[in-house]
Amino acid sequence: MNDSGSAAGAPLGAASEEAHDAAWWQSAVIYQVYPRSFADGNGDGVGDLAGLAARLPYIASLGVDGIWMTPFQPSPQVDQGYDVSDYCGVDPLFGTMAEFDRLLDLAHSLGLRILLDVVPNHCSSAHPLFRQALAAGPGSPERELFHFVQGRSSGPDSPGDLPPNNWQSVFGGRAWSRANPDSEGDSPRADTEWYLHLFSSGQPDWNWRNPAVGDYFEGVLRFWFDKGVDGIRIDVAHALFKADGLPDAPADTAVVDGLRSNPLVSDQEEVHEVYRRWRTLAEKYQPHRLLVGEVNLEPARAARYTRADEMHQAFAFAFVKLGWDPAAWASVGAELEAARQLHGAAPSWALENHDIVRSVTRFGGGALGARRARAAVLALLGLPGAAYLYQGQELGLPEVDVPVDARVDPMWVRGGITRDGARVPLPWTEDPARNHGFTLGSAGERAGSPSGPPSPPWLPQPDGWGSHAVETQRQDPGSMLALVTAAVGLRRRLWEQGVFTADDGGTWRVEAGNLLLCERSPRFLVAVAMGTEPVRLPGGTVLASAAPLEREGWLQPDNAAWVLRH
């Protein structure tokens, strides 16, 4: 990174520190932690809260504002925690509530805020309320908490043997399962109802048209907010409500690409009242709690979820899946800016998460993908609004081709797609001992049994994984880790100096030579060279570049720069 240490020369009018803290989320950098794969504190091969707490100083050293933790609540782990059986607990796989409380206190002492994942569209089939609904039978109030519906019949002698409609699951196959498939089909006690699950059959959808569901989730939010959690990330926030009457979809196709292919299962108008209620609750706390939505819709639709009385942020999903294409970046950037101008909330930028192929691989793989991923993360951190980094992105980790017999993603089993490659446990040390430093403790420590050698990680680490290790990159001033740390620090200083403000927008264009430009304000722009030849930068001071400039004022292919205009 090219950083003189005086990002913008003399201070340009220091922003109010107090005002910045009150709206910290507007330009925050959040680090996503996938606890299973971050650090293993007890040697069982699965990351946990103890491991995260031990490595928390590392996250603080990056200069980020907080962390978003994917689910660690009790779960059968059908979908790695996104099938929750107790929204107000801690799965023993990850630790105890006392360990979480200590983690929260430690994070706050290090200046880090904590965001938790909340999954309101569905729960686990092991959730007590769902189990009670199964036992209660057709027509019971217990079943009204979910979508239990009488099946269609293929003939007079086969009552309810077909699903209620043609909806398909995100994970492949139909979105319905029989409530009690072993019940007698022709007896008076026959259970011919089916239950809806937009994901796996182990993840039944809540019925948000029942007010009791809304009351239940308000209690969940209060529980965590009362503990001092700083905010929540809301899983598939655009789902929840389904079209009234649950009619057939226009086409009998899989519900893929974030539920977009079936307009009847998401983005129903009633869902906005949920987030208005949650925003009111969040603002009863001091400081206000943050609401961040996973809203996988087109920018104009997604932005409606961030109106002033709803969520504070929604991920820019149109951006997170981009390849190395300047026209696509400019087009999506322009759409997101138009949505910001209409509804007021800046995008929340990300290029990686636990569901997406890692950017190094997505941008070409090998040395080429690594160069482009460096340029992309620098560009990301210069854009207006919050930025989210996924664990290992700061190390330039590639996607791993996990052996078929080791894959555990339910999407692989049901749909032939795997997300495991982005979830492989992190390499902390070059030495493969103790799973490249992923394992900190010894097997049996938490249970109090005799310690032993660490278990293999829950997903295998590939050969050469240690070449990306944290300890190695910390010694290399030209590493991806050094780049990200310096960029986050410079970003903070530019905010403090008033170069970055909450009112910044983004004017996107592609110039000759496939030079992508995002003009954040009249004084600052992000440039990315996406062509095959060097390109001349607009006039100004280069504050940072992803790789050293070989010629002043020119950007080599697959490089990016922050430019302060004069």
Give the uncertain stretches in residue-range form. 3-20
What is the molecular shape? Answer: globular
Main sheet characteristics:
8 strands, parallel
Radius of gyration: 24 Å
| Cross-sheet strand order for the largest sheet | 9-8-7-3-2-1-11-10
- How much beta, percentage-wise? 5-15%
**Terminal CA distance:** 21 Å
What's this entry about, in short?
The protein contains 15 helices and 18 strands. The protein is an alpha/beta fold and 566 residues long.
Explain the layout of strands and helices.
Blueprint lengths: L16 H6 L6 E5 L15 H13 L4 E4 L27 H13 L3 E6 L9 H9 L11 E3 L25 E3 L14 E4 L14 H17 L3 E4 L36 H12 L7 E4 L5 H4 L10 E2 L2 H4 L5 H18 L4 E3 L8 H4 L3 H17 L3 E5 L19 H6 L17 H4 L33 H5 L5 H17 L10 E5 L3 E7 L2 E6 L5 E2 L4 E5 L8 E2 L4 E5 L2
Helix pairs in contact: 2-3, 5-6, 11-15
